[in-house]
Every structure is written in C-alpha cells, then in structure tokens.
Amino acid sequence: MSGNEAIARAVWDADARVAAAYPGTPATEILENVARYPDLYAEWSVNEKVSLEVAIGASIAGGRAFCAMKHVGLNVAADALMTLTLTGVVGGLVIAVADDVGFSSSQNEQDSRFWGRFAHLPILEPADSQEAYAMTRQAFALSEKFETPVILRLTTRVCHVKCLVTVGERERARAAEGFVKNPARWVMVPAHAQRRVPEVFARERLLREESENTPLNRLEPGADRRAGFVTSGPAYMHVRETFPDAPILKLGLSHPAPLDKVRALAAQVDTLIVVEETEQLLETEIRAAGIATRGKDILPAAGELPPHVLKKHLAALFPELDAAREKPRFAILPVFPRPPTMCVACPHLGVYYTLSQLKNVIIAGDIGCYTLGAGHPWNALDTTICMGASMGMALGLDKGRGPADEKKKIIAVIGDSTFMHMGMQGLLDIAYNRGNVTVLLLDNRTVGMTGGQDNPASGRDIHGEEAPRVDFARLAEALGIAREHIRVVDPYVLPTLFKAVREETKYDGPSVIITNRPCVLIDEYEKQPSYEVDEAACTGCGNCVEIGCPAIHVTRREKALKPSGKEVELAFTRIETAACTGCGLCLQPCAPNAIRAAAV
Ligand SMILES: Cc1ncc(C[n+]2csc(CCOP(=O)(O)OP(=O)(O)O)c2C)c(N)n1
After folding, report:
1. What domains can be seen in the chain, in order of their start residue?
2. Strands 567-575 and 552-561
3. From the CB of 72, is ligand 1 less than 6 Å away?
4. How far is the C-alpha of 157 from the C-alpha of 362, rounded, in Å?
C-alpha cells in the first residue's frame, strides 16, 4: 500500500464514522480510498476548513472522525483548528496533513509541525506505510485518551511510496452517547473559552509525559558513539541507512518532544544531531532545554534529507562518508525534462490563446491546471499566490493602480473548484466594492489539477452519485454581478470568447465570463474525429502553435522574407492524429485553412 492507502484502511479499521477532505497533492488519495470502504460517511468538502468543521461536528456527536488535507490546506482550516484545541473532542478526531517536502506539486513548502506547536496538539509522524497504518489507529486512541485532536503529519514520501502493510482487526469504536449539550464546552464565547486555556496546558503536560513513555518514541542503540541522531518521519529511514551503527532516537510522537529521552541519548554520544524535514523546530526546543545539539547549522532547512544529502552535509564530521560519496552504488540517470503543459484539447487552451492576444491587461491568476497559462506559449498570467487569491488581488490591482496602469484592464482567471473553495468570497468583495474586474471562471466540472475529483460543479458526489450541481451564473448574480455582465461561453469557439472578453473588459465594472466545456479527462468529455495538417496547404504561419495544444508539432522551421522585406520565421506543423480529439481550436487561427478532418 501507499501511505495514503494505508491511512484510508486504518481510518476504516478504527471504525471512523465520518471522513472529509478537500483534494490536494500529496494527500488526495487518502479520501479517494476511504470512500471505497462501506459503513462510514465520506465526502469531498468544498475546502479544508469545511472538512475540519464536518469532522468536528461528527466528533462531538460522539463518533470517530477524520479529515485530510495538504499542508496549505491547514492554513485554510486554521481558524477552526485554533479554537478546536480549546474545546477538545469527544470521538477521536485525526487530522492528516501532508507536507509537500521537495515541492513536487505545491506553491510553497511548509512545515505543518508548527501547527501542532501553535495549537498545542500532539503530532504523530509515520516513516512509511506500515507506520502510517499503525499510527493512524494510535492517533484515534490518543485523541480519545486526551480528548484532543491529533495531527498526523505526513510528507510526500510517506504518502506516495508503497510498501507491504500488515493490517490488524477492525475494531468497533466505543458506543457514542450522542451529542451532549454543554455550552461551556461547545460555545466558545470569551467567558467559556478562557476557562479552557488552563486545560489545554494541563493536557500538554500530560502529553509530554506520554511522549516520554510511549514506545512510539524509541531509542535505538548503536555502537558508533561519535554521533546520536534525533529524527522523525522518513528522515529516520535516511539516517538509519546512512548511519547503520549510530544510536538513534526515533520520534513517532514528535510533539511534545520527549526531552528526557533526548537528554539520555545526548549523554551517550560525542555529538547530538537533529535531522528534521524541514524547519528547525525540534532542534530549537532541544537547545532551549539546555541540551547541546547540531542540526540546521550543517543540514539544509528545505527539501528532503535523503542519504546523498546527509552524506554531503555531514562529511566534515564523518570522513568515511566522503569516500562513500565517490563510489555511488547506483547510477542516477537524469530524466529528460518535460515541462508541465495542458492536455490535448484542454478547454483552457482557447482561454489562454485569447488572453495572449490582449494588450494592456494585467491577469491575476489562481491555482489549478490553468496556472500553466503563465508558461509557453501563452505567457498570459501575471500572478499566483494561493487558492482564491486571484479575486482579491485583481480588486487590489484595480483599486491600487497608479498612473502607469491607468488604462490597463484587470482580468482574473479562476477554476470552478478554486472558485468554490475560496474564490466566491473574493467575487462578493469585487461586486460589493464595485471593482473594475473581469472574471474568467473556467468551469470544467472537475478538480482537474489533482486528478479529476468530483465537486459541486460536476454534479456528482465522492461516490460518483448524482448530487446538486451549482449554477455559477445564478451564483454570480446572487453575489451582486449584474445579470447582463454575466456570460456563459463555449471556450472552443474563439471568436465568441474573444468578443465576450473584449466587451466585458471595456465595461467599467465587475463582470463574469463562465466557460462551460468539461475537462478532457472526465466522462462528460466527448471525443470528436481528429484533424490533420494538409502539408501542401500549410504556409508555416505558425498560428496553430500559439494555441499550445500538445498534439501539434513543429516539423520544420524556415526563414522567409515578407513582401515588406522583413525577415520572418515560418513554422510548418503536423497534428498527432492519434492524440487529437477534434476540439477544433487550431482550425480557427489557421491562416491558409490548412487543417482538415483526418483521413481515416
Ligand atoms: C489550500 C489548497 N488546497 C488544495 C490545493 C491543491 N489544489 C491545487 S489547484 C486545485 C483545484 C484545481 O481545480 P479547479 O480550480 O477546478 O481548476 P482545474 O485544475 O480543474 O483547471 C487544488 C485542489 C492547494 N493548492 N491549496
């Protein structure tokens, strides 16, 4: 199992009653797998905050509850988290949060262990799939024992690497007595909340004792006493492989840290070294406890710490590592770089082709497949910060513009899932504050970027069953956009799309253009007969290349002189007919009409 599959199995084996998530790499497959098990409620929530709130509700109703998210998702859920720590939980509540250590697919690299410290919550850190399974179950038990939410901190490596997993018996969670009214606990007004604060600190003291005594934190002896390592998660695997004879304190319950155990290890070795991905957290705490240690003074504070990185950075302390570095056991073959690009016939292609033709625009972007519009050949996206940010930033670009941008049109581009996640509020702000912004809402009826999960725009739930489908045009109107400035357009029909964008950007006020073609990777997409380039007719204008469809190749480039004497480069093209799904976008800008239905 991958770590994600193992966690899903453990959620079921722990008899959780409710599981909720918003997709995000590397955590997406957890809920996809949970949803395959019977006898528990699973949902895609519209964002991570809602998923945590659903879990909180289920927990205080008495059942075990689970939610999963990627690291940045916990920023979104943090408002709920920071007060949940005061109320505590009834049914065990586990929050799996997956840090994308090494930036495989994220806008930043965050260390979610900060949240455990910030919210005074215990953190469990599995090192592989087997531990992911076991620790998920232990997390539920710990959560109920201390009436606290528990953070299960994962990294991309734990989520995606597969190993053999031995699973246990499915348990029956304790019978729930149902929601018990108790305003002093569940209604966090100041008078109630402040009384809970001492309990949080008392709980933390008990958790520290637990951390000193639990077998999750184990001191592995080693004969080589030059250094002892304190480590957790997959970094433990890397340390064990690099230093097979060193004593290691492996932390499974890494917060609160078992400082007595750390002290005991420090007394046995010449140098203590903390190996943690990514930030300097344990190390700072260990130093604050008066224990001398090394850590980020010699190791990187970003990215993974696999053996080759450890060897490079610790060679000064362990001269034999340098020699080992010169003789790699495996040849690492470089992979041919393949920049990410949009799919063949992606409905976003027409939008970016259109945007790339515009002058004097500032385009606030968002997070999704359409973020690729920032790249070649479109170069038609000027900002990306976080989910939903295109709305507020566009408004800020409008209201904050100086004389240099006076004549520029402000456009925001956002996907359906991102709009529902955090974009709606921004659009409300644009409408309310009368922003001069044109919003392009790219409704492809799925969460494309994370692999095509269902959402309220697809009209299906996590099991693929029919669910109410959101009507974006009516929603935009309800948020305050004038009906005549809300348009639904087909992104495969370039002239209509271009006209809509031109007209709405001329209008002095907020407008919304909704594109309505499904993602090519979902069932709703209907493949059409493919096209091909008539080589005899192709004049090398290269306009079809500007669409950015990966089914179009340049076969030959030639320099030529225009009648004006200006030198131009011609690009003769070919369409990969096996890949082409006949969207017809490339036909439209083709100057000599050289694209035709492919011969069958
Ligand atoms: C807070 C947060 N949660 C989750 C993600 C992961 N993620 C990136 S883009 C995206 C949604 C993309 O869907 P949509 O907006 O519909 O655009 P599409 O990819 O379908 O074009 C998600 C869930 C993230 N980057 N940040």
Report:
1. 3-211 (3.40.50.970), 217-326 (3.40.50.920), 348-515 (3.40.50.970), 531-597 (3.30.70)
2. antiparallel
3. yes
4. 38
**Position of tokens 């690492």?**
332
Q: Where is 220: in which H helix or E strand? A: strand 217-220
pLDDT digits (tens, 9 = 90+) for 409-422: 999 999 999 999 99
pLDDT in tens, 77-94: 999 999 999 999 999 999
Which structure tokens are listed for 338? 């393949």
CB proximity list for 42: less than 8 A, separation 6 or greater = 18, 19, 20, 31, 34, 35, 462, 463
Q: Is 159 in the pocket of ligand 1 (CB under 6 A)?
A: no
Q: What is the C-alpha to C-alpha distance for residues 398 and 400, in angstroms, rounded to an integer?
A: 6
The CA 457 to ligand 1 mean position distance, Å, reads 13
Q: Is 107 exposed, middle or buried (0-12, 13-18, 19+ CB in 10 A)?
A: middle
DSSP 520: T
Amino acid at 597: A
Cβ pair 26, 100 in contact under 8 A:
yes
- For atom 6 of ligand 1, the residue with the nearest CA is 24
CA distances from 456 to 52, 384, 507 (A): 18, 24, 30
Digit-coded pLDDT (tens) for 246-290 = 999 999 999 999 999 999 999 999 999 999 999 999 999 999 999
From the CB of 417, is ligand 1 less than 6 Å away?
Answer: yes
Contacts of 399 (CB under 8 A, 6+ apart): 433, 435
Please choose, from the candidates 231, 246, 342, 272, the residue with its C-alpha nearest in 3D space to the C-alpha of residue 581. 342
Query: Is 384 a pocket residue for ligand 1 (Cβ < 6 Å)?
Result: no
419, 449, 470, best to mutate for ligand 1 pocket (most atoms within 8 Å of CB):
449
Weakly modelled stretches of the chain, pLDDT under 70: 323-332
Residues facing 438 on adjacent strands = 411, 511
| Å from CA of 23 to ligand 1 middle | 7
Which protein residue's CA is at the shortest distance from atom 16 of ligand 1?
Answer: 417
Distance 416 CA to ligand 1 centre (A): 9
Pocket test for ligand 1, best of 28, 367, 521 (most atoms within 8 A of CB): 367
* Residue 521 amino acid letter: L
Quick check: CB of 343 below 6 Å from ligand 1? no
Query: 415 in ligand 1 pocket by Cβ < 6 Å?
Result: yes
Please tell me the residue having the least CA distance from ligand 1 atom 12.
Answer: 368
